[in-house]
Sequence to fold (755 residues):
Amino acid sequence: MTSRRGLAQAAGRWSSTHRWAAVLLWLAFVVVATVAGGMVTQQEPTPAELTNGEARHAEQILHDAGLTLPAHEVVFVHGDGARADSARFRSAVTDVVRRIEDTGKVRDVVSPLDPAGAAAVSADRHSALVQFDMAGDAVKAKEEVQPVLDAVAKADEAHPGIAVEEFGEASFTHKYEQKLNTDYTNAETISFPVTLGILLVAFGALVAALLPVVLAITVVVAAGGLLILSSHLVHIDQNGSSVMSLIGIAVGVDYSLFYIRRVREERARGNATQAAVSAAAATSGRSVIVSGLTVLVSLAGLFLSGNGIFYGMATATILVVAVAVLGSVTVLPALLSLLGHRIDKGRVPLLPRMRAERPGGGADARRGLWGAVLGGVLRRPAVSLAVCGGALAALVVPAFSLHTSDPGVSDLPAKSLPVLQTYERIQRSFPGSSAPAKVVVKAEGLGGPAGEAARRRFTEAAGSTPGLSGPVTYRVSGDGKVAVATVGLAGTGTDGASVRALRTLRTKVVPQTFGTIPGAEVAVGGTTAASVDTNANLSDRAPWVAGFVLLFTFVVMLVSFRSLVVAAFTLVLNLLSVGAAYGIVVLTFQRGWGEGLLGFTSTGGIASWVPLFLFVFLFGLSMDYHVFVVSRIREGHDRGLPTSRAIEQGIRGTASVVTGAAVVMVAVAGVFGTLPQLSMKESGVGMATAVLVDATFVRIVLLPATMKLLGDANWYLPRGLRWLPAGFAEPSAGGAAAPARSARPADRDTIATGA
Fold:
């Protein structure tokens, strides 16, 4: 069979030949992307893009009318030794109203001293709420709220013995994002030295360990600039930016690890640096491209979600994975060629070289832990498959009870932010007041008698309906065609009590009040509505996203390895590892088993964006290890080894590098799992668990046991699919696909040949 050069080998050969040109081009790319991104501002999703269903319709009505749902805020005034009718208390309230109005950042201020706000006094008369909306766009309100917070703080100082505190959508988001930016920066700062330490142990040399970390840093920096630019096409929120850093560090290091490991192995065979880099480009370089392509298209499945949060996450992670793949097949070969034998400089005393650098894994691989486990698996494949598969299946069972919810303010522990402690105090005195439902009405003459009559009925119903609470606010647009009414809901805003109250509002109160206006178009929005409607949308769209990912993964594996069987059991193994991760996340967070260890309070559900994101990302990420391992097995098979021997050699030869890559990913995900944000804990623990399961139980036990039992049937390809092009599986180390072993005459119709 003649040698054929693929994209990865061609790129690697050019880079290793034009070393300085490749390095300078990469640096220029990073600088240009960063500078270009710094010249514009990141565009965030509009309120309508962040939700679905009726809540989105409410936002759309306002958008079409040139309005937005205002960011609602309240100032909590409380005096242990003063009642609402005392002069001291009334003076504090009056001062608060004056100070916040003087900022010019607020509108529609309702004082509890006025008849319209009389309901905003607590039952014990020791607490009251000053209610108002932020002027201007709700999305930008978080950037405008600081002067109001300063005014409230000065009012608090001016009235000793009277507590004056602010909470609302704008103030919470403002403090929340400040906290997250600090926490994410700290997590990223920690993850790099942790990764470096792991790579030092893996490689035993400082230069070899530094190279993947440096490449990962440039990948994250360049992708960050591109992300800001792309946000003008697809809006990006905080979750997308944060997840990008996590993914960038992990895949940037993983891809480099595969490549560097293969170069060192080829050099251990006696090849010169140039030949070693060329061989790595033809083998590991191809695996990186296939793995990266699978991750990219898997993440593209998030565009089927119909939700702006996932659009942003998909864009962010696709960019950073694409940049990581580009760097791994271009600048990395150039750097390895420049360094040559100096890649082993900075030898760390007492740390041995990576065992898998020895061709085929060497004797050390046979004596190691994974060698002992693999030996037992290959001797008893049926027993190993039954025991390990059964254990993982048991972990999958809790996943069937997975429930999603929007954690809302519960995403952070109250002790981590003073504003959350304010929220808890408000909730005790005024349940539902700080996150009200917002009823948007579109009809003619809302400022006239019909609109006013509907408003009165709505106000009366809010006061008499269980689950709803006052005070009710009502605002009509200048042309009298659009109105917004707010009403408090029982519960925290995202719990069961809030959901039941929302259902009552939508099905009973609204139809009997605003719904009676002739020709009225009514939609209920707000925090609770957004949570309920987004969860319903994700439940509807999840099968489409999953189907897309499964189908594409099957096609990639079929084309890559020209095997129907390999493609089929790839789906089964990946589903098992993802399902096990889901089960552990449910047990840890939904059922609260990890509350004491991880320091959180269970909300009874999983953040709505986490399960779908974990599915598409983990399904794609698991292909990193799967393609790398199966490629080596196929490489041995195509050199003429019996299938059982090819399995043993392929697993042993990749065990150490897969373990190293998995440890890096688990460590990085684990660092992010320590963040106080509950949704990031869930995603971090989910990723760490899935990678750990995938790199150990799946790759070391289930994969070899399955392939050993299947034997030559692993490479089955029906006659009707023989037209498929030769795949991307790793060719032999020399860069060309080795001849396939001879098949028995009876096997020639069922066993696929060619790489």
